[in-house]
Amino acid sequence: MRIHDILEQKVAKQPVAPALTDSLGFDWCYEILGHVVDELAQKLVDLGVKPTDRVLLVMENCAPAVATLLAVSKVGAVLIPFNARQTDKDLQRVIDHATPAAVLFTVSVSKEAKVHAEWAGAQDMCLAGLNGALFATSRATDPVEELSDVGAILYTTGTTGVPKGVMLTHDNLIFGGRVSCDVRKITAEDVLYGVLPMSHVFGLASVVVAALLGGASIRIEPRFAPANLYNALLKGVTLLSSVPQMLAQLMHYTREQGHEHLPIDSLRYVSSGAAPLDIDWKSKAEAFFGQPLQNGYGMTEASAGVCVTRHMGSNDDISVGQPFPGVQLKLDVQAPGGGGEVGEILIAGGGVMKGYFRNQEATAAAFTPDGWLRSGDLGRLDAQGNLHIMGRSKELIIHGGFNVYPPEVEAALNEHPQVIQCAVVGVTRDGDEKVCAFVEASPNDWPNEEDLHAYAQTQLTGYKRPWRIVVMEKLPAAATGKILKKDLPALIKE
């Protein structure tokens, strides 16, 4: 099965069921989505796109982006979703490496995509009903047999050198979508909130493909804004996949509207991923939503889904739960940063990538000799078999010879009532790594840094206490809402 086959099944089974709505005003049932996909697929063929060709989509979330994913599948080509908010230089690197047959731009929903389209000399695709939402440029390319079963290539964001393109097969993407669909029990009655970037595996597999498999509809937003999410929840969204930073801002916005709890009862499932939780914050979130907050763990190279909790009620479990059906994991306690019960998380199962496109050396390094995917993340397993994420192996801070795991320090500071969210990194000073915390707070409730240091002394062992605490109105974040820790050290003032 390929991704577009899912749509064709839904068109036959539930043609008038709602499929997609977005900020551009598109409101499509499954039958209309099917017609758009057919027309777009023919347009791609007219542009010269052939099976195994790469189609690069410079995008932000919108209905035409979902249609492009399905049309590319129908042609037998491979989609490369690219976040429009990245630079021309980043885009050129991907173009040089992937050699796409066509580059499409979601110009109507993204000023950045429009700028990229002008830079690339793209033209309106002139598709009936899409109102100039997509521009394209094309060129000749050669087929690549290696990609015959690949549905998408997702490029990781590197700071130097050639970017790595994660090859996810149709089976990988459908596996990732299926486990998400099944654990959330998605049906045609559900409305998913689609603000997680579809250029990222979380939004692509765990939202788009999962919704298609369940026959649900997606309310699509190009960018996160707490007010938009708040209003969408009031209008009937039933499933919310998020990152903790999104939920923290939603809770803060809701309090500003005069509510301590979310004033709705239609939302039936809330999940968090991409960053660790702490018990105090989790308890506040569960009281806010009036239901358990499910926590999950995944990565691009594993098609998003690795583990998830399955709580029936509120509790003090801040793990990421146990593996999805069809996923296996184990710990390599000999990995850098390991020791004792902490080790690198190794993964096997139906979501594990085919490899990195045109990069055999990186592919070989990503797997153990016996075929397990190396995650680069540190974790431990508790007595119940639940996985606890201790951080990235590269983010481990070694201060005074002691291992400091950033999530522990973040969890402690997040309990302070004036802290919205926190991020901790290590900075090298005088031959040692120092613990540095960056705290997001409201201008209307600005904490005193000395008070935060005093609070940390009551919560943390000496070597884990921050050397510096920087209070900010907003932490730098990626399109997913995930904090960009690599940008934080430069903000320290000596």
UniProtKB/TrEMBL annotation:
Pfam families reported in the protein's UniProt record: AMP-binding, AMP-binding_C
Residue ranges of domain AMP-dependent synthetase/ligase in the record: 7-357
Xref: InterPro entries: AMP-bd_C (IPR025110), AMP-bd_C_sf (IPR045851), AMP-binding_CS (IPR020845), AMP-dep_synth/lig_dom (IPR000873), ANL_N_sf (IPR042099)
Top enzyme category: ligase
Keywords assigned by UniProt, alphabetized: Ligase, Membrane, Transmembrane, Transmembrane helix
Boundaries of every AMP-binding enzyme C-terminal domain copy: 408-482
EC numbers on record: 6.2.1.3
Entry similarity comment: Belongs to the ATP-dependent AMP-binding enzyme family.
Organism whose genome encodes this protein: Pelagimonas phthalicica
Annotated PROSITE patterns: AMP_BINDING
TM annotation in the entry: 191-213
Keyword rRNA-binding annotated: no
SUPFAM superfamilies hit by this protein: Acetyl-CoA synthetase-like (SSF56801)
GO molecular function, one term: long-chain fatty acid-CoA ligase activity
PANTHER family listed in its UniProt record: ACYL-COA SYNTHETASE, MEDIUM-CHAIN ACYL-COA LIGASE ACSF2, MITOCHONDRIAL
Protein name: Long-chain-fatty-acid--CoA ligase
Domain of life of the organism encoding this protein: Bacteria
